[in-house]
């Protein structure tokens, strides 16, 4: 069955080109990005000087080709400004890091190109293709519908065990034992692990809950019934991804509080959780023992042990990273802690995205990475649209802001990339950059 792997990955480019031919650019972008991420195999083919051609990059490459062929005029919408500082810093900082670590300019440029493709292309696609109410809501509807469809696959694997990737593409994406949770199975479908599935279902549910608040007479946008919202909520819990479930509950609570009170404070407070946590961990203000005790009280011993392993990684990698605090150690596992006695690595792996970024890129890269997720929320909340977030016309901006903040909170413990998140980041920055633009006109 592995013959389908190159067919799916290589075939995604002409499929996306076809989508650009028959759909509007924002529709083709949303469908290609979402469907590619959910359905393509976790596989890659090496490209010299570029990131592997894989599930991670296939949609980005395809959309870039689609833009050049079918929508070149949209490129002028990029309009770089100070609002784009996080993505610019994120894509260019590897050059400085590689130079300071003696890795050479080629290594730095290669790393920058990788970040431009993996993070930059989705970001700028979001910025240029989603500029008004209908375009923004189409992306939301695409994610919600994809969540409903994916939930059937998830529930199938909850019942039968994670087998779909093996049935379709001929291989299992990870060790089977990792998919056993709570005397049952955690679905992976066509993603690298069940945590990614849980985060996607979480995002779909939050968007559905927000879109369900549209006025009953709304004709131009689909308004999900609350039964669909309830179903997605239960399906997310059934995925047995503890972190995603907790983030979903917390996100729904914040969404309700903002709807009831109209206070932007709750969005801002949630966005501040990651930088406060990172600062506390690096300064030693919050020792890991206290966090583990709290986690054990909220979940169970198994999840507490998993968290403890991640916190030990934070301590080890953080100590090594502070030896080169500004721009980090660069790639090639140079940031990994090594025992002074044996010369061997002190850990077998690293999970938290922020830990990885801090070790490789230092505080500069970490600031860029964190801002890429949180700056859109801050920019909108303190901008002209901040006082209007309760208005039905602005649905679902609030839920998109929530998703980015929750994704960054998840990045504190897990290293999960999702190309739709930088797409959302670019979209929100484009909106914040044009606070007086009419967001409610129909797409042309």
Automatic annotation (TrEMBL):
The chain crosses the membrane at residues 6-23, 30-46, 58-75, 87-106, 138-156, 188-208, 228-256, 263-280, 363-385, 397-417. The keyword Membrane applies. The keyword Signal does not apply. Keywords: Membrane, Transmembrane, Transmembrane helix. This is O-Antigen ligase.
